[in-house]
Amino acid sequence: MTATIPNLWPDDIKVDVLPPLAILRVQASKIHQLTKGVLLGDIQTLTGSDGFVSHRLDLIAPTLDNRRKSVVSVTHREAFYPVVIEADCYRPKIQQQPIGYAGAAMSLVIGAPEWPDAKDWRPIADSQEEFLRRVGEVLKSKEVRAVIDSLLALSNEKNQPAEEPAA
Amino acid sequence: MITFLFWNLKAQPLRERLARLAVAHSVDVLVVAECDMQSGAVSRALSDATGTAYRVVLGSGTALRVFTRTPLANWRALFSDTLEAWLGFRFRAPNGPELLVFAVHMPSKLRTTEQDRMQDALWLSNDIVKLEEQEGHSHTLVVGDFNVNPFEVPLVWSSGLHAVMDWRAAERETRTIRGREYGLMYNPTWGVMSDRTPGPPGTYYRASSESVNYFWNTYDQVLMRPALAGHLTELSVLDSDGTESLLTVNGIPDATNGSDHLPLLFRFDW
Lengths: 167, 270
What we know:
Chain A is 33% helix and 20% strand. Chain A is built from 4 helices and 5 strands, in the order αββββαβαα. Chain A has a 5-stranded antiparallel beta sheet with strand order 1-2-3-4-5. The termini of chain A are far apart. Chain B has a single domain (2-268), classed as Deoxyribonuclease I, Chain A. Helices cover 21% and strands 29% of the residues of chain B. Chain B is globular, with a radius of gyration of 17 Å. Chain B starts with a strand and ends with a strand. The model of chain B has no long low-confidence stretch (mean pLDDT 96). The chains are: A alpha+beta, B alpha+beta. Chain A binds chain B through residues 44, 46, 48-50, 52, 54, 56, 64-73, 75, 86-88, 91, 96, 98-99, 101-105, 107-108, 112-113, 115, 117, and chain B through 59, 76-84, 90, 108-115, 118-119, 122-123, 126, 134, 159, 208, 210-212.
């Protein structure tokens, strides 16, 4: 009698996984709808050294001479996951210990440091599910909300008709 | 003429020293990094000492801020990076051209890898080019604490800041590499490095036990497009606030009574 060989793959594999860029593009278009066109979302992509690809979601206020504020940057390699997420809400607010100047010097000898660095303050999403959770966390953060409300308030102020001069 | 001063304040309460610098050098625009003082308190100290009203420019960051005695209407915030590592402004210089001013405070070398620094330089360069396209000119200056020396890769790399030490080399404006064109910047800060130049040998001193150690670093720099280079009349690293020295008796930045960085002063004449 042969033993039943179990499924060793994770139970939560999904087949509708999208690249991080596609997820950010949807968020960029949604802010336009949510603010009735007062703000625009724009995605920029750069390919850097060592096969790194970075995408950045910027908010643009067209009535403020296209003033632009970037709210989240994500970086991955040719494979879409893992993704490193950089946003103000994750930035250490107190002086932290260096991640290792000695490590940087060592890289001259032994090559590039490991990527992604699990000890770094920037969170890492290994899956789409984790990426969605993290991006949601950023876009709902008080830091991004402050940016949205500031840009909306400044845009609304600029759009207000000038006051009638006193008679 | 317009006078700029950049200083990384290292989160120290240095408004009085900042005010002395403003008086001593008749500074029009102060860009400060690691500023954790209230903007109102800084503006008041500057205004009281100089007798002219200084205000913080709208669009300044939490710690990276711009103070000026030029009319605030001459300034327009155009860009802010995710972590406020750089801010971009349109600035109409009095009796001068419209400028694009980028204030920069790149993340510390102690907390980033070489890859991070190259990626940041790539993004900053991209933002500069985008704003130049938007504004329709390249009267661009980029000032701040880059946390790398003028000779390190993020500053000289063609996809990064692409900043060179010779105005004549930058004057060609672009360089084509493998069929792609990259804009050049002029970095006059090369000219204030080492003990063979007037003033301190750098802007930041760090004696470490690592095998590569420059002791003096020039992390605080100003870069500009070649269109502005001919108008630069002065650039110096300051070792005094006009009254008191910013150095210890050993000749390194007095971090106990000031900042561990020294201020950078530069002037343009139109």
